[in-house]
């Protein structure tokens, strides 16, 4: 058995098709289950709140701009020793779109290139995935009072460089904000004792200084959260000043998102009370860094400053988390409640429905409910990560997943006579 801590935001907008006709029955079903089974962990592992969403609230890259693999950009990386290549972000320098035509991308300023040493954004040949770098950089660099960042691992590649630039910009503000960084570990493969949080933080601050920042002015914590029970932080959350937040599925991994074969992934950005509520979930994660093995805090404990409450958001939002070996898992029941309450259709985008991380395929806790919905006439649409077996992305092949779901359906239908 393995566990992962994470947060899922179920955005329940009343303008969604079907909700006006039937009422907000999905949200009601979720809240009923949460209050009945997880009431004591409200505002620790789940919440009901509100938020505002801008026109570009959805980070769904690179789906919208590419129709097939032939349209994906090629040979994006350049030789950092070349005069026409940015040595940090390894993208070709440009002045207009025609400079990038042979790569099939456009020329635009990379905001994430801004640092105390580089006050203006550098124009580069950028693919769609590179816009992710700017989105993550922007929310970090805009922080005035407190920044929280959780992830599976420390960012790498160009994500790391943008991460360093953002921290460098924070360090030279008149009053630098407090910063907390919490990850499952430095990487997804090295055990945490092989890369202590103190060593990693010292290197991070050295890199901040190399970009013209002053790491000594930055109040910062870095911690790993994992246990020998195969439980680790898996949430991906950035919260700026308890008001602006990005949450979702993106790991800040260069090779997965910024290359010629990018992963399709989804995150969302919002502002308002839901960000404050999510801060409480992050606080709960931090409370466990002092209790469990292979968890360290480097930089001296920081408590987030108190910030005034914000306005009521226009959209209703339910946030559900799971704490794995560290606590309660209301997200499992909330997602099941959504499936059970469905009347017309279910659309799911999933990395896996089953897993073989323990060297044998484990049952899916939602499979029975999905089959029940299909039997009752609900149209169930599921998109997985990979057609064939691919470690970490589609660990159970599409065919085996289908066969297992079909076996459950046969058993259920035979049982009905």
Please sum up the structure shown.
With 417 residues, the protein is an alpha+beta fold. The protein has helices at 19-22, 25-38, 130-141, 157-171, 197-210, 254-257, 273-288, 330-341, 367-375, 398-416, and strands spanning 3-12, 46-51, 58-59, 106-110, 122-126, 146-153, 178-185, 220-224, 226-227, 231-233, 237-240, 244-248, 267-271, 297-298, 315-322, 345-349, 379-383.
Q: What does the model show?
A:
There is one protein chain. This protein is of the alpha+beta class and 417 residues long. Helices cover 29% and strands 21% of the residues. It contains ten helices and 17 strands. An eight-stranded mixed β-sheet has the order 3-13-12-11-6-7-8-14, sandwiched between helices. The chain has a five-stranded mixed β-sheet with strand order 2-15-1-10-9, sandwiched between helices. It has a two-stranded antiparallel sheet with strand order 4-5. β6 (146-153), α4 and β7 form a beta-alpha-beta unit. α2 (25-38) runs antiparallel to α8 (330-341), α3 (130-141) runs parallel beside α4 (157-171) and α9 (367-375) crosses α10. The model is unreliable at 10-23 (pLDDT under 50).
